[in-house]
Amino acid sequence: MKNQEMLPAQPIVYDGRLGEQYKIFLLNVFLGVITLGIYHYWGKTRQRRYTTSGFLLMNDRFEYTGYGIELFWGFIKALVIIGILSIPFFYAFSSMNKITHKMEQLEQKQATAQHAQSLEVPDSKKKTKSKKHSSSDDDVWDKLSSQEQKTFVSASIIVFGYLVFYYAYLPFAAIFGSLRYRVTRTRWRGIRGHMTGSAILYGFIGFFHTLLKIITLGLWIPFADAMTYKYKIKKIFFGSQQASFKPEYGKLFGIHLLTIAIGVLLAAIVGFIVSLLSMHTENIQQATESTEHIAAGLEELQKISSVTALIFILAVIMIFFARFWYRAAFIRMKYNNLSFGDIGFHCTMTGWGLFKQLCGNFFILIFTLGLGLPIVIQRRQKFFCKHVSVTGDIEKSPILQATGEKDKSGEGLSSLFDLNIGLF
Amino acid sequence: MTSSFTARFFDGKTLRPFIVSVDISSTGLNIIMNENDIQSTLHWESSTLQVMERPTHGRPAVIGCKNAPGARLIIEKESDYLAILPLVQQKNIKHSGVIHSWRRVWLLVLATILLLTGLLWGIPLAAPIIAKIIPHSWDNALGQYVIGEMVPDAEECVYPAGQKALEIMISKLSKNTPIENNVDVKVIQSGEKDINAFAVPGNYIVILSGLLSYADNPDEVAGVLAHEMGHVIKHHPSEGILRKMGIHLILTGAFGSSADYASELIHLKYTRENEQQADDMAVSLLKQAKVNVKHFERFFEKIASEGNIVEDNIEIFQYFSDHPGLLERIQHIQKNATLMKTEPILTHQQWQDLKNICKKKVPIEFKNQKEIQ
To answer: What is the ipTM of this complex?
Structure first.
């Protein structure tokens, strides 16, 4: 580490051209349309190849060596696997639907019978009757056979389990698989990346931390972020050198608490103002009742409600901005605490800078109806290069070529989830 | 052929760059390295050479070798790259970015826009022709799907005496037409105000029971049924779907789901010409069955005079939901309706049976029809 600090940081330069990005973008869009989307994987590869080759470190370019066919087959494989895994879900879902439909029919029949009865029963007796029917759901459930009840319960468990699996487990596994593919397909000075570890295990880690985030009402977020990142990043090798990452949980947790505190404080201020205003509103209402200045009172009420709405919107924006501070802190930690042997990184990203970058990208995409995507790609790479540099004596690094096998599964799952994982 | 130049080289084993001398021979490249006064030579066969990067916008060319993964030769001068290029097999030339000129890219963009425009406007224009040539099995499948979406979970009315009456009506109307013994008419139970009937692809016609309750006599029902038969004979349902789908096929395919497709099909409307053709066909079928066309005409007038019925919901009035249009249509029917000897299409008893057809209901089943010409 000392060695890294003594040497000047090596900037990462990006010299990709916007014109070329647009050429790729236009070709990809139109070939995608003609091939009904199949070209997407080849287009993605073409775009990655160009963008990756735009990065230079010590005057040497990075290189992306993936193929469109790899991505395509990865997608097909993932589709087949998910399709097979989804069979019990669809079976359970259709069983649930059938029983729900039957329950609805029973409920309808019951409602018709009740209506008919209510026409005959005198008013005095109606009250007692209606009490009885408040538990109509239970009645309908009881009318199902025990076999149907069992089927419904087990189908519900399968459906719930599948949805949890699909939304809380699979995305993590997909992210890991995609990262592995990208790492093994990227070279610098001919040395490629390599990644060990298991996407299946990472899926469980991600799921477990998501659960903890929910249980702790968000307090676990920095630990979850850092721990999941640590698992996957430590599995990455650049050539023969494994990555090392030492997270500073305390620091990240502090910033997290601070951003939440800002949010809570703002919410409290807003709440206080709203309560004050509502008290004032009551006074006005009383005044308008006692006097005849109703129009003036209503005007005052309108002003108050617009001010309240404005304050609320401001509070939401402030909380949103505060979270950028956390995100930038996390990104800084990701790079500043990462090293490959003697080679380290230095990141200077700030919350404000990240905010400007992401908001800018968002508005470019919105106002150009997506046609500004190449501009966003260029901005993203330049922003990264502006804030991240490499430290350490690269020339003397003993890093050798990776010996591990290349990943052959493409990006598979991530294509299904449409996850776009940047390597940098 | 031998020429040589100097280049940077990465051996694919370490991060260290080397300055090497490269000799180009007819069999490939000889890469000569001088390391601590020790000379070593690597030979890259021409069949194994790969262009990893072409020299563009001041970027150096990058040459690789299939037999030496990760080894890279960085060539700064374009002339040196061009000297190597004839040795490299075309399939081994990779490149980032697009090699085509902007002119070519714009030509492709233009061609794609023309293709899309062709799909958007060409399909609707060719819809009447395409509708006649698309396989009947597709029509059938589409029709069954549309019925399932339009009247989900509905039950078909199959009271035997009512069905027999319906069959008599169908048989009389479809005699000597391409759909004789080849049309599947389904009566579906509905609310009293659901006065509707519609034709869908695959020779299927659906009558909602509300129509039977609303009609004063069987000849009014026969008029509506003959109109729907007209649509079937003229392939209007498939034509309408194609016409609408021409525009929506791409948009829905790109941004929508199968539910959106269903919605498109359900909200299908015929053109003014289609409706007129179906009316003409209806008059002709009614005349052939010796049914008084006046009843069909009266049915129109009855609907037009009753403000409580939303005409736009009824298929046969969809296009002519405005009263001038409806009146024009009535006049058109009157013009074609010549006086002749007529008789009711059903007896009084058969009519009563048809009205009671929903006494028995079963889940919808589909018969497979033959191709119509």
So the answer is: 0.75
